[in-house]
Amino acid sequence: MFDEKKEFKKLKTIVAKLPEEKRELAEGIISNCAFMIVELDKLRKSIQENGVVMEYKNGKEQYGYKESVSFSAYIKMQKVYTSNISLLNRMLPKDMDSEPNELERWIAEYD
User: What is the pLDDT of residues 3-16, one digit of tens each?
Assistant: First the structure.
């Protein structure tokens, strides 16, 4: 189980060395990322319990299976999360000869 405040603190240390104007922008992004980490975990648990499809019935003769609401929300949120992490990574200074930056190491924890 992830804790939003802990995830925010982890991500905040990664962007702490950015210039003030970039850091303010980055903190808004990491706030959203911390929220999404928690929500993605909840959605993942729901999907594990209930599956990626659900039955539906519309009237007497229209029924079948469709993508579950949790799975649909998970996919959409995962795309936004990935986009935000990518944006944060582009904000960090690059040195091609150096070790991975803090964000890249943090991402590797979840791979």
Answer: 999 999 999 998 88
> Residue 8: which of 40, 31, 28, 26 has the closest Cα?
31
Q: Which three-class secondary structure string do you get for the chain?
A: CCCHHHHHHHHHHHHCCCCHHHHHHHHHHHHHHHHHHHHHHHHHHHHHHHCCEEEEEECCCEEEEEECHHHHHHHHHHHHHHHHHHHHHHHCCCCCCCCCCHHHHHHHHHC
How far apart, in Å, are the Cα atoms of 29 and each of 12, 25, 26, 59, 84? 10, 7, 5, 44, 6
Would you list the domain boundaries of the chain? 4-110
What amino acid occupies position 6? Answer: K
- The pLDDT assigned to 52 comes to 97
The pair of three-digit structure tokens given for residue 42, joined into one six-digit string: 């909840």
**Distance of alpha carbon 37 from alpha carbon 46, whole angstroms:** 14
What are 45's two structure tokens? Answer: 């648990």
In the chain, the amino acid numbered 47 is I
